[in-house]
Amino acid sequence: MTTAQMTSARELDTIGLSCPLPILKTKKELKSMETGSVLKMISSDAGSLKDMESFCSQTGHGLLSSEQEGASYIFHIRKN
Q: Which residues are known catalytic residues?
């Protein structure tokens, strides 16, 4: 599934925030979502690439995609 084909239930903009805030805000947002729904998270923190992989691995959420667009990092995460 390409990013263009993915539909997100919600979008979370964490641009300008540094670690650990993007992870904490993502965790809070996912907690309020229904199982199986997809969150699009946007970050400007370069560390978020490794952070989101670790976060999803530890929590069981599915990291569907991660990509860089200019200075932004875009993640699609499926809530478990």
A: 19
| Domains of the chain listed by start with CATH number | 20-78 (3.30.110.40)
CB 35 within 8 A of CB 6: no
Q: How crowded is residue 55: how many other Cβ atoms within 10 Å of its Cβ?
A: 21
Tell me whether strands 62-69 and 38-43 are parallel, antiparallel or unpaired.
unpaired
If one counts every other C-beta atom within 10 angstroms of the C-beta of residue 15, the result is: 12
- Residue-wise pLDDT for 3-47, tens only, equals 444 677 899 999 999 999 999 999 999 999 999 999 999 999 999
pTM equals 0.89
Cα separation of 5 and 35, whole Å? 20
